[in-house]
Amino acid sequence: MFWTVFRFELDYHRRRPSTYLFFATLFLMTFFAMASDAFLIFDDQGQVMKNAPIVLAQTMAVICAIGQTITTALMGTAILRDVQLKSHELVFTTRVTRNGYLAGRFAGACVVMLLIYLALPLGSLVGTWMPWVDHDRLQQFRLMSYLRPFLIIVVPNILFVSALFFTVGAITRNLLAIYVQGVALLAVWAISQNILRDLDKRLLGAIVDPFALSTTGLVTRYWTVADKNMRDITLTGPLLWNRVLWIGLAAVVLGIAFMAVRLEVEAQPLLPAWLRRRRRPAPIPASMPYPAASRFGSLTLPPARLHFDPRARFQQMMSLCRFFFASIVREPVFLAIAIIASINVSLGAWNVDRLYGTPIWPVTAEMIGFLNGGLALFTIILTTIYAGELVWRERQLRADGATDALPVPTSVVVGGKILGFLGAMAVMLLVAMLATVGVQTAKGYHHYEFPLYLQALLGVVWPTTVELTALALLVHTLVNNKYVGHVVMIVFYVLTAVLGTWGFERVLYQYGQAPTFIYSDMNRFGHYAPFMTWVTMYNCALAAVLLVLAYLFWVRGADDGWPARLRNAAARWQSGATKVAGGLTAAGAIASGGFVFYNTAVLNPFAGTKEIENRQVAYEKDYRHFKDLAQPRIVGVRIRADLVPERREFALQSVYRIVNKRARPLDSLLVSLPAVGFGSNITGGVFAGGGYHADSLVWSKPSRVLLADSARGVYLYRLTTPLAPGDSLTLSFGGHFSPAGFPNANPNNDIVDNGTFLNNNYFPGLGYDDGPELADDDKRKEHKLAPKARAHPIGDTLARKDNALSMDADWISFDAAVSTVPGQIAIAPGYLQRDTVENGRHVFYYHMDKPILPLYSIQSARYLVRHDQYKGVAIDVYYHAGHEYDVDRMIDATKRGLDYYTTNFSPYQFRQYRIIEFPRYQVFAESFPNTIPFSEGIGFIARVRDRDDDLDMPMFVTAHELAHQWWAHQIVPANVQGAAMLTESLAEYSALTVMEKRYGASRAQKFLRFELDMYLRGRSAEKKKELPLMLVEGQPYIHYNKGSLVFYALRDYIGEDSLNVALRRYLKDKGFQNPPYTVTTDLLQYIRAVTPDSLQYVIHDLFETITLYDNKADTATAVKRADGTYAVHLAFSAKKLRADSLGNQTEIPVADYIDAGVFGAPEPGNKLGKPLAVRKVHVTANQMSADFVVSERPVKAGIDPYNKLIDRTPEDNVRTVDVK
Amino acid sequence: MELVIEGLSKTYDNGVRALRDVTLTVAPGMFGLLGPNGAGKSTLMRTIATLQRPDSGAIRLGSIDVLAQPAEVRKHLGYLPQEFGLYPNQSAETVLDHFAELKGVTVRGERRDLVQALLQQTNLYDVRSKKVGGFSGGMKQRLGIAIALAGSPTLLIVDEPTAGLDPTERRRFLNLLGEIGQDVIVILSTHIVDDVRELCHRMAIINEGAVVLTGDPAAVIEELRGRVWRRAVPRADLAALSSQYDVISTRLVAGTPMVHVFSDTDPGNGFTPIDAGLEDVYFHRLGAQAVTA
User: Fold this and answer.
1) pLDDT at res. A486
2) A1108-1219 is classed in which CATH architecture?
3) Which CATH architecture has domain A854-964?
4) CATH code of B62's domain
5) Residues 6+ apart with CB under 8 A from A900
6) pTM
7) ipTM associated with this complex
8) Which of B55, B72, B106 to probe by mutation at the A interface, max A CB count within 10 Å?
């Protein structure tokens, strides 16, 4: 019996075109993931090969998770199909046994599923063989790389999801229940993964992930390039537990189906009887009394006039709207999805952006981000499902005969339905909004900005709903097949996701997507507002056109063939109102689209990613040969900036005093100002420029223009008389920025109404500026450019003549005058000399009385200011009204930092320290001389809960930036490898020490746990090569994350005092240096000088090599002794490894001093309790032991318990003590 | 006002000829459209109800050209489709109110009175707040006719309304139809001969898309008077008998086949004369057409 049903099921799917469609879809997805660069699942290029086992595994895992819509159709309907076709009564009454029937159906459908999903490895495989695939990106073919992920990931996934859908379908026999269950599965998955992404909960998250996505992520998170290329996903550890769990659950779920499903006509009731009785309406008597059965009277009805005038039509439309609204909002599917959406948004909002585990205040600006992002998926799901419902509802209910013959125009019906649905969607948005308000309230935040909520919901989220609804409605109307309609919509969503990578980047193509914007508390929607408004108007007008089309082709009546529909469309088009509506909406779309085009293509010439790349390549090809052209140096800078924030305009002037510091005369002067060609957003990201123009460049000595490329900002001059060594001249520059309309993307965020932040990128530099060069090696290869070196070699003596922070100057004098709109405060480095109102503008004059590096910022906004001072240093925090939360912490951190740094390092060179907030267009803080621009997104709304041991990130960032006044503005590294160790790593060390002094060692260790994780993940994502700390080439995971770990460990080994002595001497000798600048080997000499011989190896391990450990506590036992003390015996293994730049590891002998210790019971939230005994053990073999005598009951013991050493499995260093 | 159908033909894409040159004139009053399953009744009904277009032909309702002015027709139309469904999660009252408003009864008070009256007349008043999804077949049909009657249609089309109803419900439904005013054109399609016999003044028999007979039920029965004969026949003799006689129908009466034959003269051989019924007319006509077709 089983085989009959099984074969029948196979045969059924063999004949279905959809089976082949599914196969083809999956095949093409992995095929393109392999054979094209436009469609990448695993976004990790560089040295990782395209057919590396992990890439194949992740690609298959992701597509498999997405593919569950297929499972819905195939598995959910395996039983349901009979019921839908009403053949179940026939089937159930044959001699088929229940188990045979269920097993046959399940096995049949499941086998079909597996065959379909074989498309995943096949697609990758065939993709690998395509001749155009770059063979340098492929490694030797191994069949198991393709098969293993299929067997380990795909097959168990399918078993579980299939069992689930099959069971739900078989038990409920309700298609909607299957849909809901599918959405719920996805939502529960997303939500649980969101909750469990914290460092401590990741293991749990990995085990409960039915798709094994986060599991493979966890298992491979610290894999280096070499690991990724060589290691296979193996069925061990968390992945094994995960697979066992889900296959087990699959069996349980399937068991439920076999227990619960009976071959009966009615589905099994899901609720217990006592619940059902209450919910079901009272049974209606089968025969009603019929008093007038034989009256043979005549039917008399009260008079009711019929109205067909416009007012009646409007009333009917509103009535339809109410009718559909009421029916949709009461539907379980809608409610379920809306509730899941709200939960999703709330959870996102609840875990609002954490930096090192420290949350921020749930400000409304953040909440609207969650609403905008968190609802998108659910909007897509609901519009797709319900557009289909709106089109199909009457036909499915077989009510279309009655409704289509009603004397109500089709336009009224279509309009009423859409309004009803959009009303229901509005309810969902409102509920989601209330959920976020609830989150704010629960977190004790009561500054609800309802106008902002409404702006975001009505102006951003809601229009996309309208747009998607209109499109889905048109698709369903035209396709006239519900299932195909859904597929077309899914194809549309996939297309919108990939169109950008195919070069379709114009905002005009981004129908159904909210325009990209950044909301800032300081600048509100700011200059994004007109962009958003016009793009939204255009999209909505387009939606209206689609709706008119949907109306024209709306199926009414029994004829739904194309000839009939075309005839109907023609007939409907005859109506004047239709023509007016069609004409108006089309005109609206063309007009608004035209205006958007005018702004994004004419006023601001459009340049897509590829075009910008081409320009970068051309720039490099045209000008790189100037890179060694010797230039004089800037020694004095006077600038004037006239800001017009209210119009987003500014004019800049500068006068440079320039000296020939070379030994020979110079006659060729190269001026670079890439900001005019490539924009100058503060991050240094390269965009199409626009709006910024150099107006004048004037030398004080006669010269001839050899080259003036004002489009890209490159100018070459020849002095009539060469500049003699030691001789000087001046360069006067004038430039201005005036925006025109709005660009397609990446508007200039530097000059805004409230929160202007310009830096020295807007001023010309001397010599070739390699900033615009294409940095990504893969892209460089496409353009036939050699890989770009990230830094000059440490031994490059020429490069050591430049510092890492500027290319054309050493130390400069600095004066600035900045004018702005009255009401704003303008700030630049230096000390305020005076501020006056001139010609209605508020002008601030700054003078710096010491030489500084040529790094300067210009900021202007409506600020509140808090002043303080410490030991003669003025401390000022300029902040946005409402962002008072962390100001005191910043001031406190500044005081503590000043205290520690002046005591242990050297005096502070300025009399003032200023922190100045800027909008969240960028999220960073940066140290300029006595001036710290500090993003509103990084420290001003942090919410440090001291009782929860949150890390005080405002303090840390403040102390870090303050430390840069020493480690960047006193110690100035040469422009070679290792530079960032001298600035960033030392700043991390300094700030960490300040934080540790304030909060204690356990808080510092908590911080280091994040640093270790980020370092290990960072090296896993390395695209070129990992380097030892002393040779770091601008790799943040090394100079920040490893830097903290390394200096913390070093301090632990040689002692805080010794380390600070070394730093103090180093500062004394190398501070405020002129070329050649200092390099990391210098610092290491100072450190070696204070390091005992026995620990010299540590410096080699920490700075000069990539050294890792694999330490593990094997056993820990304790015996209580007669005197009440405990003898603890700890056996551990220790392994020391050296890694090369790709992460290939070789084991080296251990001969290290490593912490071993015993701890008491931990307090809640801490990993380790009170240290009972901790000492450094000299480890000389892989297997060793240590004995302790402690006076309190030991709970934990371990080797390197604080994770001071870099260990890829830090969690096994400590284990629970077995007390006998 | 009368409904004039001229030369209506319709062939579906799959080649089925649903209507072949159908010409009918329907005056106010109850008009029965009789025919077997698949005869084209529903196609004809849907075409009149503006839901489908014929390949050729014309339909006029009074001065309205039905095919060219469907919106006009709908203002006068009440339509009860065959095997229809309604919004299962709504109450009868809500559904009826919804339809009444869409029919143009937009004045709230008038609509409320109308809905109450219709619910009472169709005897659904007591279950008016129950969800339609729980209704029995008969209740659903009555709600359907209430919807069709809302807005005082002058053309009422009811397609196979009694199919699947038990005898009591069928009786109730026919009684309800019988109460509809004489000035309304009511077209009742059915394959149950008794429905037509009980209600209709005029009728047409349609088979394989073509009209095979039109007329007054009484008159067409009169035509067969004295020409229908009956006899019980042993099962073994059935085959021989059908080649010998013009057999109208065979049915079992208490397990024994009872044969009706058509004959202008006494066929003898144990046949006795009977009063012809409409059913005899129906089977006679279908049989005759089967021979000629």
Assistant:
1) 82
2) Sandwich (2.60)
3) Orthogonal Bundle (1.10)
4) 3.40.50.300
5) A990, A993, A994, A997
6) 0.86
7) 0.90
8) B106
